[in-house]
């Protein structure tokens, strides 16, 4: 049985595994909406698992493990599949590199510890997973699972906001009254849907901006609320400054007005805060 386990570990070595936090390591900062959306939307499989067995592999059985870490083969039962077409078998396995404890020894992963994992399937190995990111294993909790379900539920809604892949042309039209104007900035979406930002200015009123997920523009629509999928798509993707090509066909005066309106939108969206530490 041990031989079979090690063989499976070697077979999965070709799939890159990065170090991540483990039980007994100081807790990472609380993950933000953007952190969770980054993980959840990029992973074909999101599952709640319970550890049944963890084997710390020796240096002879592994290669490419970062200094101060030990590679583990985790075997876990699936408590719930949160995302993943085709389902999962009752028991899965995956490799993970975990930092050693303060005494330089391998961390202890207790049996029946529960995690939320973000992963992809290993081709032709239905019971094996490959973690999608260095920190793609999070201690499970009902609150975290519900937050993830909300993000994923929003992502598959019929009117879900698509990923933004760029910014197209922008136009500015002065109104008939002094101080009245409208700016429209077209965005490029991953599904080629027509998406635009509109900024409406009227004398004596605060400027209003809105997002249209289609060809119809509703200037009375409200700006997206923070920690929603539409907010994430905009705040965490759009550049802070408008690209020059977006105003290449505008006059200098129009370009100045468009840039000012774009800054208004970015200020309204606020900062896309992330707490995950790149590795």
Summarize this structure briefly:
This protein is α+β, with helices and mostly antiparallel strands and 279 residues long. It has 5 helices and 10 strands.
Secondary structure: helix percent: 10-25%
Give the N-terminus to C-terminus distance in angstroms: 34 Å
| CATH architecture field of the largest domain | Beta Barrel
Level-1 CATH class name of the largest domain? Mainly Beta
String of helices and strands: HHEEEEEEHEEEEHH
What overall geometry do the principal axes of the alpha carbons give?
elongated
What class would the helix/strand composition place it in?
Answer: alpha+beta
How many individual β-strands?
10
Question: Number of DSSP helices?
Answer: 5
Residue share in β-strands? 25-35%
- Total tally of structural domains: 2
Largest sheet: 6 strands, antiparallel
CATH topology of the largest domain: OB fold (Dihydrolipoamide Acetyltransferase, E2P)
The average pLDDT score comes to: 87
Spans of at least 5 consecutive residues whose pLDDT stays below 50 are 1-28
Rg from Cα: 24 Å
Written account of the structure:
The chain has 279 residues and is α+β, with helices and mostly antiparallel strands. The protein has 2 domains: 2-155, OB fold (Dihydrolipoamide Acetyltransferase, E2P), CATH 2.40.50; 164-269, no CATH class. The chain is 22% helix and 32% strand. It contains 5 helices and 10 strands. Strands 1, 2, 3, 4, 5 and 6 form a 6-stranded antiparallel beta sheet that branches. Strands 7-8-9-10 form a 4-stranded antiparallel beta sheet, covered by helices on one side. The longest helix has 18 residues, at 252-269. The radius of gyration is 24 Å and the shape is elongated.
């Amino acid at each position: 049985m041990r031989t079979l386990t090690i063989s499976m570990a070697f077979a999965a070595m070709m799939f890159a595994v990065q170090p991540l936090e483990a039980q007994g390591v100081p807790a990472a900062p609380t993950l933000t909406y953007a952190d969770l959306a980054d993980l959840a939307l990029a992973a074909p499989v999101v599952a709640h698992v319970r550890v049944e067995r963890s084997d710390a592999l020796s240096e002879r059985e592994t290669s490419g493990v970062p200094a101060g870490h030990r590679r583990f083969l985790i075997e876990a039962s699936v408590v719930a599949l949160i995302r993943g077409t085709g389902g999962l078998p009752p028991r899965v396995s995956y490799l993970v590199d975990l930092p050693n404890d303060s005494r330089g020894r391998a961390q202890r992963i207790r049996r029946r510890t529960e995690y939320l994992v973000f992963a992809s399937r290993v081709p032709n190995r239905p019971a094996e997973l490959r973690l999608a990111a260095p920190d793609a294993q999070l201690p499970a909790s009902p609150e975290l699972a519900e937050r993830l379900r909300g993000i994923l539920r929003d992502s598959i809604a019929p009117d879900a906001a698509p990923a933004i892949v760029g910014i197209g042309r922008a136009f500015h039209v002065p109104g008939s009254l002094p101080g009245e104007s409208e700016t429209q900035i077209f965005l490029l979406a991953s599904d080629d849907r027509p998406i635009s930002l509109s900024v409406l200015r009227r004398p004596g009123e605060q400027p209003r901006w809105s997002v249209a997920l289609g060809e119809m523009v509703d200037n009375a629509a409200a700006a997206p609320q923070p920690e929603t999928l539409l907010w994430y798509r905009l705040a965490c993707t759009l550049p802070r400054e408008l690209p020059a090509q977006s105003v290449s066909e505008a006059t200098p005066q129009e370009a100045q007005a468009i840039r000012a309106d774009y800054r208004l939108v970015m200020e309204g969206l606020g900062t896309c805060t992330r707490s995950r530490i790149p590795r």
